[in-house]
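Practice record 12: protein with alpha-D-glucopyranose.
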Amino acid sequence: MKTKKCLFLFGALLAAMGVTSFAQTNPDGTPDTGDMHAGHAPLNLESPAAVEKRMQWWSDARFGMFIHWGLYAQDGCFWKGRDGQSEHMMLKLKIPIAEYAQLADVFNPVQFNADDWVAIAKNAGMKYLILTAKHHDGFAMFASPSDGYNIVKRTPFARDPVSELAAACRRQGIKFGVYYSYGRDWHDPDVPTDVKADGFRRSNTWDFPDEGKKDFAKYFERKVKPQVRELLTQYGPIDVLWFDTPEKNTAAQSRELLELIRKLQPDCVVNSRLGYHLGDYTVEEQTIPADGNPLPWESCMTLNRHWGFKKDDHDWKPASELIRNLVDIASKGGNFLLNIGPTGEGSIPAPSVERLREVGQWMKLNGPAIYGTTASPFSKLEWGRCTKKVADGRTLLYLHVFDWPKDGRLFVPGLTNKVESAALLVGAPPKPLKTVQSAGGTTILLPEAAPDKISSTVLMTVQGALSVEK
Ligand code: GLC
């Protein structure tokens, strides 16, 4: 917590000094516009207290839904029978704009029902939802007055998913956010990218081959700024702005966007892919860092191997893996943003729905051990994970037991506090458990069988400030 405060303070100090360029460089001299990690402070425009206030709901939420949905879903990331590999299909197959846009002519996801989607997220225990408002293909999944290449204007569907999902989230009491691809847009003539180590440019080099002519600033003024403004003014509160691909933007542009966001929606939480270490929290993709991160962080992950709907990907993660990932992330102080890829008809693939239902059943019982908790005070627990809460001078330790001890003795190493109570979280009335304190820690005596095959929770309450000998 101390580190976090210091880092926020550092950001606020820079802002107070009127620092306008936050550019940092990688060892090879290229601008470091990537994610923040320990030691890379999120930079903000306000006081640490204001940032903490904005982040409160987000830190308590711990679990959200990511939705990758766009034209690529029409035929499950296939194009005229060819495998487009992912939502990057347009780039992978170098599909000319004029042809890719034909997908819009037929995109008609009549099964889309915002209330059903939000209910699926909510019943899974998710507290927020982030929709791809514009992905790298440049197609806006919202009514964008500044750019006609959008779902309302260009498709037979002619409805606005951002508007419908924002309203459904509000009705059902969960937070709503949007993803915006900032540094990649294969529809715009002015978006360059670097040649990456694999020798491949991630910009549209087939319709617009002359990279030298591309001027990011033009695209920024013509498309990014107006669309970010539209997203923040057309739909009521936008609780999260989830940027992606900070690449050729300057520090001044990222800062300008942040100022725009703060002016229009001061409570909107912003991720670090705004670039240049600006924003409120950092993002991990498909990984859980071994030691978490002292900064606010979120891990986004797919349910199978793809973000967008990929019709031949049947490699779904089991609910047990999803639940343990959620517990693992919470025990490291992070949020879990779990992705779904709806189809071109507007339905959520059944295997996703089933798994989310299973996660929801677990969350219904074990939610108190996840929501509003903070990172584990223990460095390693052989049998599982721990999350904690502090309330009324007591510390609540939620022990998430993945591997139920065969001898019925759950050892909590290093804990020297006097134990007030210990009980299984699930079950009424709570069944008190005996504890034995010894020099090396505390042992809890468990019933023979694990109440939950995936992860059982023991709630232990200890008195006073927590004391853990490492
Ligand atoms: C990866 C994918 C991109 C997706 C993003 C989500 O970078 O390439 O399509 O939107 O992950 O974090």
